[in-house]
Amino acid sequence: MSIFVIVTANATNVSATLTSSTDLAVLKEAPNGLPLSQYMSNSTPTPVSGSPFKTNSAQIVDHSGDNSTDGNIISLANGKNTYGSLWSTKKTFDITKPQTISAWMYFGSGNGEDDINSEGITFVLQNDARGNGALGAGLDGIGAYGFDKSTSSVFNTYSEKVSFMQNSAIQNSVALEFDTAKNNMYNSKNAPINMSSSGIPLVGTTFSQNAYDTQLGTTPPSSLGIPGTLTYGSASRYGNIAVIYPAFAGTYYQTSIDSNINSNYPGFDKATVMVHVDSQLADLTDYTDSSNNPVYWHHVTIDWTPAPSGSNIAKLSYAFNDITKEGLEKTPTTKTIDIDTTKLNATDNLVRWGFTGANGTSNLVATKLVAFDSIPESPTSDVSASITDKTLNKTIIDSSTDKTVSNGDDLSLNYNLNYIRGKESWKSIASKIKIPDNVTLKPDANENIATIDYGDGQSPTKISKDDIVGGNLQYTLAKELDTNNSSAKISISVTAVNEISSDINVKQAPASFTGTNSIAMTSSPAFTILAKKDYSLVLGTDKTEYDLLYKNENAGLSSNLNLGYSSNAPSDLKGSDIVFNLSIGDHNYTAAQDLSLQTGQTTSSTMDIKQLIEGAGDNFWDVFPVNSTQQVKVTAIDRTNGLVSNAVTYNVNVLPDKSLTLNVSDSLAFQNIHYGNQSTYLKRTSDFNLSVTSLREPWQLSVTSKGLYNSDNSLNKNMNLVYKKDNDSDYMNVSETPVIVATNNQSYTTSTTDNISGNWTSDTGLLLKQLGLSPVGHYTGTLTWTTSDVIGNN
């Protein structure tokens, strides 16, 4: 099942074009990965003396199988006995900082056969002096470990010392292995591998012992100098994940061979077993999807957590099979492993990262492939999905225990994109979001079905229904994500639909977010749309009109509600988790109450609306402005049974608590003065209205004037405005000193008007007094009226 034509050469690297039609299909269906040539490379291997592993099969290819500088897939081993490594071109992995690598790996057919799946892939951090030419042994060395060499003599075959294996490995390194074949010397099918071209064992013939994964009956000593849980050999035949220190002497343990027990090892003196750290079973090659189809592409997320200050122990975490190629989130195989960073010998804290791989000896062996969603050079991003039931006022995530919604519920499909860290922004993010089954889009008045809220605080971006293509929302974000704009939330408005008499289980729906330098995937949570019900939740009230005194210190607003099920509800129906939704203009509020509901009974509830509004952080009087009538709509939600009640509407009339209004005419005219007219007081010749309207507000009214002026703006000192309250009162000059016109100490509970000018006669009220002869002319002036609070006697 080889993907590539095998090329035998003594050249530096080996590359070829994919030809197998079967595996062309596998590669054609590979996940979209990041372009790699600007980040990764390799060079001429420099093996130690005595090692036959002198070529490197690793290359960058595209989806057609061609070796390409624009390729986005690594081929590590492409034919029997091949092996290879590919590294970051520079030492870009800073072990003092958090790092994330997200990748897809292809091992083989998925049916657990060594002929097809061996040997495996490793993720390696290394500080080898050979740089991107670093390479270990093939076969069970998986391109990273030392060569487990034995050499034949006349009668026996002798193993090389541990130091040879240590030195033939990638130096100053730590590897996370994904081992697809258990190289176990106790397995009857397992045998040493003859490395000679003739295949005939002769004196001086070199063998690979092929026994690194052999489990022994003992445990490595804790004094070995490796943190973690240590075992000799690996945990599984067809799938094992573990940490290995390739160039550490303590990694290699040599045990004597009894040829009577190990008949496949006649004359061999020793076999070398590797110490594995935190070895764990994993579905590397025998994993199937929900339809029992083999899974070829396996996703892994690898996270690096730096050692804390004063420590050399960092942590490497992995989540394997955490997501499907379609983007559906799964329960992964996970582990966090302590890593001894001193074994990297990185004085500048910088190392190379990369992958190695190797194939077994069968002509059927599959190519080992890797594609990347994110690498240390690219931004680290994260996405998650949730569903908000806006009707039932709850949010559903993968771990929710309650994942039910009801027919007709308004839902929001939420996708949260987060920029975590990186040297550059997350660029040109193209979203492809599959709309889940059994929901319908809910456009707004402008035919928009979604919004994007960015973390920069700017107004949301609207997304049109025209961006739905083939059941997917396909939209490229207008903004990059970086440290200044680190998040984007896409919210799609839909309605749940279930018109049948049984519940509908809605499956996860994938979503991908593909940038030019980082790719992230997630899926909407699975949820259940409850069967449509022919009974209902009934909400009632005994009062729908309320008067509210604006800013009165004793003002409050509470509603009395009655709640129960319709008469045709099942006799055993009960509910307790009740939520009330209130809408007041553009304001929406939610109140949860633990009520006991059951068929045939009505339960009463009182809701303090003022307390609810203020508890949400709003100003009560901003919601209920003076001199307005506000509608308060209330619906009840029985979250236990997924029922939404009818709406009850209250009309709230907001009345002034106190008011004081002055009503005064705009103009006032007096008698004309003719020569010889010696009247002291001139009467009004125009109607003049003066009144004060008050509510719970004692008051005092005063007037001032700066006098009368002619057209030249000259003050007439021979005329003066005066005020006479009644026939028994004295005349008071109206000047810049306020004259008290009227006072009312009463605090009326209803709006009351005092008509002050209504009691004036022609000889009382405002008059004009002559103090002497005035020049001919037209005189005007201004009266300033002031009403003010006074302490009332109530």
Topology:
Blueprint: H1 21-28, E1 40-41, E2 59-61, E3 73-77, E4 83-88, E5 93-94, E6 99-106, H2 114-117, E7 119-126, E8 149-152, E9 157-159, H3 162-167, E10 173-179, E11 193-194, E12 206-208, E13 230-232, E14 240-244, E15 252-256, E16 270-281, E17 297-305, E18 313-320, E19 333-340, E20 350-359, E21 368-374, E22 380-389, E23 394-396, E24 404-405, E25 410-421, E26 430-434, E27 439-441, E28 448-454, E29 461-464, E30 468-469, E31 472-476, E32 487-496, E33 504-506, E34 509-514, E35 519-524, E36 527-529, E37 537-540, E38 545-550, E39 558-565, E40 574-584, E41 587-598, E42 602-608, H4 609-615, H5 620-623, E43 628-638, E44 643-644, E45 648-656, E46 659-664, E47 681-682, E48 690-695, E49 699-705, E50 719-724, E51 732-733, E52 739-744, E53 752-755, E54 765-770, E55 783-789
Parallel strand pairs: 24-36, 38-45
Antiparallel strand pairs: 1-4, 2-3, 3-21, 4-20, 5-20, 6-17, 6-21, 7-10, 7-20, 8-9, 8-12, 10-14, 11-12, 13-16, 14-16, 15-16, 17-18, 18-19, 22-23, 22-25, 25-32, 26-31, 26-34, 27-32, 28-29, 28-32, 30-31, 33-36, 34-35, 37-39, 39-42, 40-41, 40-43, 43-44, 43-45, 46-48, 47-54, 48-53, 49-52, 49-55, ...
Short précis:
This protein is mainly beta. The protein folds into 4 domains: 21-374, Jelly Rolls (Sandwich); 381-529, Sandwich (Immunoglobulin-like), CATH 2.60.40.740; 537-656, Immunoglobulin-like; 659-789, Immunoglobulin-like. Strand 17 (297-305) and strand 18 form a beta hairpin.
